[in-house]
Every structure is written in structure tokens, then in C-alpha cells.
Specification:
Elements (H helix, E strand, L loop, with lengths): L3 H13 L3 H22 L8 H15 L15 H14 L5 H24 L3 H18 L2 H4 L4 H21 L5 H19 L7 H14 L5 H28 L3 H20 L2 H11 L2 H19 L8 H7 L1 H19 L12 H17 L9 H33 L10 H9 L5 E5 L4 H5 L3 E2 L7 H4 L9 H6 L5 H12 L3 E4 L13 H10 E3 L8 E5 L7
Helix pairs in contact: 2-5, 2-6, 2-18, 3-4, 4-5, 4-9, 5-6, 5-8, 6-17, 6-18, 8-9, 9-11, 10-11, 10-15, 10-16, 11-12, 14-16, 16-17
Length: about 550
């Protein structure tokens, strides 16, 4: 069987058969993603995260209607690229239902899984890709609540961009002597920067990627020094390009100071600064939140470090040793810095940890594959037995992923889900009775979902009224302290936009703002009293004010 055409066919089969487990895992993962997303599209494109998806969809509507300069989110660390991506989805699939968010979430989940498997295939680690695909999907559908795992959040966009940079880096450094390597490395820099501009905590990905690139530039002395310098310049210029374009766009619009305030000042001095002392709080959060993950990950990290450093003959040889295992060390470090950044965001919401999942899956898969390679059962010569052994590893994982999703579906069928028919919410019935299709409405507080659910445009950019009020979520501060935390110019902007849009209804959702009513802020209270009449209709917690017709309220 080793000669002639049959021998060639046999050798080809030996090469591709070990990838069968990865292909099966990828197929299972994509099937689960498709089934999950279709389940929430069928009832009428359900909302899975009232606040975040409501915020993204309503803001995207403002953008596609002519305000394409995104408002930088100074509370949840979302960047402008996330809002541009959401706006493109809303432009394609409509702003008056949750369909755009469901299809965008599906595309992001599929892209993340495919990119993980592709990266593993480039490293000739098929089992690593299989484990990443199954673990990522299983956690998104099971361990995380569905409104975090399947909802459209900035972490999903971050994952696609940052994970797409990994195969670019692998391809670039594998072809380092060729001119095409510069294009791959520049693309890796661009994609990593886009990830950070989608969610600010994604900027930590530059650390592991940059470390591998620097180690390669130092260690590969067989390549001319100028060529190695070009590697660093290509990656750096690629990373700078998206940031320069974004900053230039804000500068041309005269909003550069606004961009800087929300991207940096608000995060570091107002929001994060208000939660507690910076260094002490970061240290405490890192060691107290998700401590179980740290305990499980620590031995695996130790194994990976030993594997990476064992080849080094001394400190000077360290760059060569790290470069020799560059992709594996990079994946390990990405998992570590992603976990640290998820804690450092000081929110501890489930979706913050989506940033960790792809790297944790790849890293865990690499460790498992390395362990299996030490077994006499797994050998390259006995491809059939090796394939069977790998299937034994992934089949239980696939079974648990499928079973977990099945249990979750049954739970939702039994308990129902309030997001299925959002247009039947009491607040939406009130909106339809007291406004026309083309009217705008305004919700004071943290309550953006009705903009999309009730099919009305937002009257202001302040879909969350944190900035004109000075209120910081989860914190109760003295009135004078909150007054000092009002974003500069935000009250004037809000009053101007309300005056221009003349919303048909203003909803005072004080319960979502720490019981801080719009009527507690004199500039806004005057505006409301001057042109609106209070309604006593129960709309689910908010107090509605309807635009007055005539001189007096009925």
C-alpha cells in the first residue's frame, strides 16, 4: 500500500484523518450556535439583554439617521468600533426589531469559533481547536446566562478582531523572510487595535502579541536586522492606523475633547475612581472574584511556563526559547491578561468574561493535546487508533454541550422569556396609544429597550442618563459629589436635544437610576413641567409624561 497511486492516497489520508475530531467538533459547535440563535429568532427576534442590546440598537438607529459619530461609552468601556458594527447590522436588518442583534450575535459567535479552529489548524493542533470550539459554545450557551452568552455585546466583537489577529501573526512569522510577512503583521496590528476600539479592555491583547513579535525579532539573527525592524514597524503602524483614523474623525467633527473625556478621563477619574482606590481595588478584585478560575488555571499556567522556558539555557537565551513556542506562550498569556482585564473592569458581569473564553479554550486544548502526546496510545504511525483516542476526548465534551443547551431550552419553555414579544409590554401599549410611528420618546434612567421594543426613535444621545445626572451605577454618593461628576456640557446638550426633538412621551424611570427622578434636577424638571402632563397609567414602573396639547393638562 506504500507505492503507486494507492500509496499517495493512503499518505494523504494519514494527513487529514487526525483532523476529523476537529471537524466534528466544529460542526457540532456551529449546529448548536445556529439552533440557539434560531430559537430566539422564531418568536419574533427576542431581546436577550434589555439594557445592552437596547442601548446598542437605539444608538445605532440614531447613527444611521445621520449621526455617525459614535458616543463613547464611559461606563461599560465600549469603544466606537462596536457601535459602528452594530449600526451596520441595524442598517442591514432594520432598527424596529431585535432581528439585527440576533443575526449579529450569530455571525460573531460563528466567526469566533471558526477563527479558533483555524488558528489551531495552522499550528497543527487539531484537538486544541476541537476543545476550543466545544468549550466556547458550551459556556456561552450554558454556564453564562443566555443574555450574556448569546446577546450582542462588545466582547463578542472584541473576540473576533483580536482572535483574527492570531492567524495573521502566525502566518507572518512563519514567512518572516518574505516580503508578504509585513502585510500579515500589519494586519495583525490593525485587527488588535480594532478589538481595543470595540471594548477598551481588549487593548491588553497588545502585550502577548507584542512580546512574541519582539522575541522573534531579537532571536532570529539569521534574518537581516533591517528586516526584523520592519516586522516591528509593520505591526506598530498597523496598530496605529485605526486609532489615528478614529481620532481624526472626532477631531474633524470638533469632538476630540469629548472623545478623550469619555475614553480616558471619565473611566479613570469619575467612574473607576469613584469605585475605590485604583491599585488596591484592582488587587482585591483580582484575588476575590473568579478565584475558582485562578485556582484551576494556575497549574496549567505553570505547565505552560515550564514547557516554554525549559529550552532556555540562560536569560540571554530566553527570547529564542519563547519564540520557539511563541504561539503557545501567546495563547497562554492572552488567557491570563484577559482574565485580569475582566476583573479589572470592576463590573463582574458575565459578559465581561467572554473575552477570556476563546483563549482559555485554546490554552486548555493545547495542554490536553500535549498530555495525550505522551501516551503510547497516540502515535503518528497509528492514525486510526490516534483518531479514536482524540474522539474519546471530545465526544463527552460535545455530549455535555448538547445536553446543557437542551436543559436550557426546556427551562425557557417552562418559565417563558419576557423578551419574546416586547411589543406587548405595557409601556409599548401606552406608547402606541399616545404617539405616532415617526415620533421620538425619551427615557430617563437605564431603560433603553423600549426604544426598539416600542418602535420609536430616541430623543437624545443620552440613552443612559448617567452623564447629565452625575450618578454612578452601584454607588450612592452625596448630592454635591454627584453634581461634581456631571459630564461637562451634558445637561446643556440634553436640554437642547429634547427641545429640538420634542419627544411625544418622557418616561421617568427613576428606579433604574437609584431612585433619582428627573424631577430632582431643576433644569430638566422645568422642561418637563413646561410642556408635559403626568399620566397615572401603570406602564411597568416608569412614570409617563405626555406632551401637552393646549394650555393646561386635562
Amino acid at each position: 500500500m506504500s507505492a503507486g497511486p494507492f500509496g499517495s492516497l493512503w499518505r494523504a489520508r494519514v494527513r487529514w484523518v487526525p483532523h476529523v475530531p476537529a471537524a466534528l467538533a466544529l460542526g457540532c459547535a456551529l449546529l448548536l450556535i445556529g439552533d440557539a440563535c434560531w430559537y430566539f429568532i422564531k418568536p419574533g427576534a427576542a431581546v436577550l439583554n434589555d439594557m445592552d442590546e437596547g442601548y446598542a440598537t437605539a444608538f445605532a438607529r440614531r447613527m444611521i439617521e445621520g449621526r455617525w459619530l459614535p458616543y463613547v461609552d464611559g461606563v461599560s468601556h465600549r469603544g466606537p468600533v462596536f457601535y459602528w458594527v452594530a449600526a451596520l447590522a441595524v442598517r442591514a436588518f432594520g432598527a424596529e426589531s431585535w432581528l439585527a442583534m440576533r443575526l449579529l450575535a450569530w455571525a460573531l459567535l460563528v466567526s469566533t469559533v471558526v477563527l479558533g479552529v483555524l488558528s489551531a489548524a495552522l499550528l497543527r493542533r487539531g484537538l486544541m481547536g476541537a476543545i476550543m470550539a466545544l468549550s466556547y459554545v458550551a459556556v456561552c450557551l450554558g454556564s453564562l446566562s443566555l443574555h450574556d452568552g448569546l446577546a450582542t455585546n462588545a466582547e463578542h466583537v472584541l473576540n473576533v478582531f483580536v482572535l483574527a489577529a492570531l492567524p495573521c501573526l502566525i502566518m507572518g512569522l512563519a514567512r518572516a523572510e518574505r516580503r508578504a510577512a509585513l502585510g500579515w503583521l500589519a494586519a495583525a496590528g490593525v485587527l488588535t487595535a480594532l478589538g481595543g476600539l470595540s471594548k477598551q479592555v481588549g487593548l491588553v491583547a497588545f502585550g502577548p502579541y507584542g512580546l512574541w513579535l519582539v522575541c522573534a525579532a531579537v532571536a532570529r539573527r539569521e534574518v537581516p536586522g533591517r528586516q526584523r525592524l520592519y516586522w516591528l514597524l509593520a505591526f506598530g503602524l498597523g496598530a496605529a492606523m485605526p486609532l489615528v483614523l478614529v481620532v481624526a474623525r472626532y477631531a474633524l467633527a470638533g469632538e476630540l475633547s469629548t472623545f478623550w473625556y469619555f475614553f480616558f478621563t471619565y473611566n479613570t477619574q469619575v467612574y473607576v475612581g469613584g469605585i475605590g482606590p485604583h491599585a488596591q481595588s484592582l488587587f482585591e478584585l483580582f484575588w476575590t472574584r473568579k478565584f475558582d478560575l485562578l485556582v484551576i488555571a494556575a497549574p496549567l499556567i505553570g505547565v505552560a511556563l515550564f514547557h516554554a522556558l525549559s529550552r532556555a539555557r540562560g536569560l540571554r537565551d530566553l527570547p529564542r526559547a519563547l519564540d520557539a513556542r511563541g504561539a503557545e506562550v501567546t495563547i497562554m498569556l492572552q488567557a491570563v491578561v484577559a482574565l485580569a482585564a475582566s476583573n479589572g473592569g470592576r463590573r463582574d458581569f458575565g459578559h465581561y468574561y467572554l473575552q477570556v473564553l476563546p483563549w482559555a479554550g485554546l490554552f486548555g486544548g493545547w495542554v490536553i493535546e500535549r498530555v495525550l502526546e505522551q501516551s503510547a496510545f497516540v502515535t503518528r504511525k497509528r492514525w486510526l487508533r490516534t483518531t479514536a483516542g482524540r474522539l474519546l476526548v471530545i465526544v463527552p465534551a460535545a455530549a455535555i454541550a448538547i445536553a446543557g443547551w437542551t436543559v436550557r431550552v426546556r427551562q425557557y419553555q417552562q418559565k417563558g422569556h419576557g423578551g419574546f414579544r416586547t411589543h406587548d409590554w405595557p409601556i409599548c401599549k401606552f406608547v402606541r396609544a399616545n404617539s405616532q410611528r415617526g415620533d421620538s420618546i425619551f427615557l430617563w434612567g437605564f431603560d433603553p429597550a423600549p426604544y426598539t421594543a416600542c418602535q420609536r426613535r430616541p430623543a437624545s444621545r443620552y440613552l443612559y442618563t448617567t452623564f447629565p445626572s452625575g450618578f454612578i451605577p452601584f454607588l450612592s454618593r452625596a448630592p454635591d459629589v454627584e453634581a461634581a461628576q456631571v459630564a461637562p456640557g451634558s445637561q446643556e446638550i440634553l436640554l437642547r436635544e429634547l427641545g429640538e426633538s420634542k419627544p411625544a412621551i418622557i418616561f421617568d424611570s427613576a428606579m433604574t437610576m437609584g431612585n433619582r427622578s428627573i424631577m430632582q434636577y431643576e433644569p430638566f424638571a422645568r422642561f418637563v413641567r413646561a410642556g408635559y402632563c403626568r399620566s397615572n397609567v401603570n406602564v411597568g414602573g416608569s412614570t409617563p409624561w405626555v406632551r401637552r396639547v393646549g394650555e393646561t393638562c386635562p
